[in-house]
Each structure stands twice: as structure tokens, then as C-alpha cells.
Amino acid sequence: MKMHKQKKRILVVDDETKIVEVIKSYLEKAEYFVYSAYDGITVMKLFDKINPDLMILDLMLPDINGENLCRILREKSKIPIIMLTAKTSEGDIINGLDIGADDYVTKPFSPRQLVARVKALIRRTEGDKLRKEGLISFNNGKLIIDTLKYEVKKSGTIVNLTPIEYNILKTMASYPEKNFTREELISIVLEKSFDGYDRAIDSHIKNLRQKLEDNPKNSLYILTVRGIGYRFIGIKDK
């Protein structure tokens, strides 16, 4: 069954209805869930309820100004914030970034460029989160190795690996594009005193491929290097 990534939630805050509608239209076309607020009080009521993944925040609001709202939210959340404003001076931009904004877009703006910045910021934030949580992600999240939980997920589903299979995968994935001989994998992954037939590694690799690959004959993760051994070829996510 094909797994679908959960849509990200974007909170758009601006007191100009037309601007909110334009931003919302473009973000929804980019497949985001979009929530709207036209003043700071509404933001404070909505924020914890919807737990947005990113916020686009106008500085000129009718009640709480954007700078103060940003400071308040920064005390309890690391949510990415893009400030949207008519203030264009270098001092205003620096001040906005100093109080916790992640990006700064001035009016008038290109909706397409704003969406591109949203995508880039979410992508960067997700990458940071993966690194902090001890996750190594490959092929656009299709394969994730959790080095804290000793767990592997393929397309969001946990893959049941034996301890040896997990150690082989983690070792190879930690050094992508390195050719590992069977003897190296035995010395790294198995007991140092292991004196079994080195082709035992082949059986573990075969089992790994059956569990990880959609088509074991057309590998996306583990490549056989003739005359040497094996190499991990998954593309690491940034």
C-alpha cells in the first residue's frame, strides 16, 4: 500500500483579507493545510490548537504587532516563522531576524517565491529535526534508520530486522559509496572471534534486500561489487 506523507500545516497571519486569500490559494495548490488569522489575539487562541509547522506573520497587525507576537511565540516554540511586511529597511530586516524570524519577505511579493521559501524552510527544518533525533534518512524519507531506537522504517512502516541485519545496514549506510569486503563486515558487525565462512554475510545481505527492496534484482540500497563485496547506494537526504 502506498504511504502518503502527512500535509504540513501553515498558519497565515495578516490583517489584509486579499493577501491572506492569495497566499492561501498558492499554498493549498502546493498541498499544504492552511489556517488563517487576522490579528494577534486569534493567533494566540489558534496556535496551540492547530500546532502549525510554519507561520507566515505580518508585522502590522491591529492589536499585537508582529514583533511582539514573534517574541511571545519564540518563548514556547521553535516553529519556523516567515515575516511578511512592507518594512523594507535593512534595520527592520535585521531586527526581525534578531527577534526570532527565520526569513523575511517584503511587500509587494511574489506568491510563487513565497511558496518556494516555505518549502525550503520546512525542508531545512525537517533535516535539522532528523539529525537531532538520531535519524538518518534516505531516498526522500523512504528509508529511515533510527540510531537511538535501533529501528528501521521503510515508507513509514517498521522493518523487522535481526540485530546482525541492523548492524550491517547501519554500518554500510554510515559510509555511503564505500566498498565493504565480506571480511570487513564480519570484523565490524559480527563477533571478533567469528571464524565462520565469510559467505555467511551473503545470506544476511540477501535477507536485507528482501526486506528493504521493492525489487531485490534492481537494488536501491545495497549494490553487489563483483570481486569485492557490497556497497550502500541509498541517497542520503539533506
Describe the 3D structure.
α1 (17-29) crosses α5 (111-132). A five-stranded parallel β-sheet has the order 2-1-3-4-5, with helices on both faces. It has a four-stranded antiparallel β-sheet with strand order 6-7-8-9. A three-stranded antiparallel β-sheet has the order 10-12-11. It contains eight helices and twelve strands. With 238 residues, it is an alpha/beta fold.
Topology overview:
Layout: E1 9-13, H1 17-29, E2 33-37, H2 40-50, E3 54-58, H3 66-74, E4 81-85, H4 90-98, E5 103-106, H5 111-132, E6 135-138, E7 143-146, E8 151-154, E9 157-159, H6 163-174, E10 179-181, H7 182-189, H8 200-212, E11 222-225, E12 229-232
Parallel strand pairs: 1-2, 1-3, 3-4, 4-5
Antiparallel strand pairs: 6-7, 7-8, 8-9, 10-12, 11-12
DNA-binding region: 133-234
GO molecular function: phosphorelay response regulator activity; transcription cis-regulatory region binding
Pfam family, one: Response_reg
